[in-house]
Design goal:
By secondary structure, the protein is an alpha/beta fold. It contains 8 helices and 15 strands. The protein has a single domain, classed as Carbon-nitrogen hydrolase (Nitrilase/N-carbamoyl-D-aminoacid amidohydrolase), CATH 3.60.110.10. The strands form 3 sheets. Strands 1, 2, 3, 6, 7, 8, 14 and 15 form an 8-stranded mixed sheet that branches. α1 runs parallel beside α2. Pfam families: CN_hydrolase (PF00795). InterPro entries: C-N_Hydrolase (IPR003010), C-N_Hydrolase_sf (IPR036526). This is CN hydrolase domain-containing protein.
């Protein structure tokens, strides 16, 4: 990672089942997808990224498997891979990769909480491998409640520190829920609490480009999205698409992976991030400023 980098790398077009010729064939083994995520973190760091954003947890666990939750804010999952609750290799693996590559990670995992309920949780890990923020999905798609058996969290809308600024966290269905329900309290709360951009981790089957544009226009915030099986996408506060500065291929990064995943990189203007949300929104309105490599 470059010192003080404000470049965000976003996983794009990952197919979690695109494995062949190994124990990973079919993608049911989450360990295989973790290897690809670790490779993405390494390649993102080598490309100068300061943080890497990943899709919703089904991109790691396409078989819907869960692991014990060990990543509350302040935790160091890399040092606590084994707990009294059992092994949590995805959380510890992501934290170790962040620490090893000195790059922040924003990832999503399917977990079991202390009381046994299953949740879908976003975790923000800093470049030292420590959890700086976590958030559980509040608004579930109906099939996530039944038959998958996930429970909504009671977490408040969460704004997390990242790349010297503050980002609001949204998980999949939560990006379209306000339009469908008329309830904008979550995204309005993110803006009220100082979010300078929205990070949207998506499973699949959502209109990423159109949804991101509508979110941006409604909130006046830029939106950056990583979706399972779809292209990473970023829009300015006006809803206008922002082209990435570059793309880094991941095909062949891990033995047996035959998908077309890549990282797409967007340079975030560091000075406006530090100055505040109003400056951030103004700069992100002007797309050409974000296309230089």
């Amino acid at each position: 990672m470059e010192p003080g980098s404000s470049v965000l790398a976003i996983l794009s077009n990952h197919d979690p089942r695109a494995w062949t010729g190994s124990a990973c064939d079919g993608g049911a083994n989450a360990t295989c997808n973790l290897r690809l995520f670790e490779a993405a973190i390494a390649r993102g760091a080598a490309a100068g990224a300061g943080a890497v954003l990943f899709p919703e947890g089904y991109a790691l666990s396409p078989d819907f498997g869960t692991e014990p939750w060990i990543s509350p804010a302040g935790a160091t999952p890399c040092a606590a891979a084994r707990t009294t609750q059992g092994d949590s290799p995805l959380q510890s693996g992501l934290a170790c990769a962040a620490r090893r590559q000195r790059v922040a990670v924003v990832a999503n995992v399917l977990v079991r909480m202390g009381g046994g309920e299953k949740q879908i949780r976003e975790v923000v890990i800093d470049a030292a491998g420590a959890v700086v923020s976590s958030y559980g999905k509040r608004h579930l798609f109906p099939s996530e409640r039944w038959p998958l058996g996930f429970s909504p969290s009671s977490d408040a809308p969460t704004v997390a520190p990242l790349l010297g600024g503050r980002v609001g966290l949204l998980i999949c269905y939560e990006g379209v829920y306000p339009e469908l329900s008329g309830d904008w309290s979550q995204v309005d709360g993110l803006r009220r609490d100082g979010a300078q951009a929205l990070l949207w981790s998506i499973g699949s089957h959502l209109p990423v480009d159109a949804g991101a544009a509508r979110l941006a226009r409604r909130t006046g915030l830029p939106v950056l999205a990583s979706a399972d099986g779809a292209a990473a996408h970023a829009v300015a506060a006006t809803g206008a698409p922002l082209p990435p500065s570059r793309s880094v291929a991941l095909r062949g990064a891990v033995a047996g992976y035959v998908g077309n995943a890549s990282l797409r990189l967007w340079p975030l203007p560091a000075a406006p991030l530090r100055r505040g949300a109003q400056d951030m929104r103004r700069v992100w309105t002007r797309a050409p400023e974000l296309t230089a490599s």
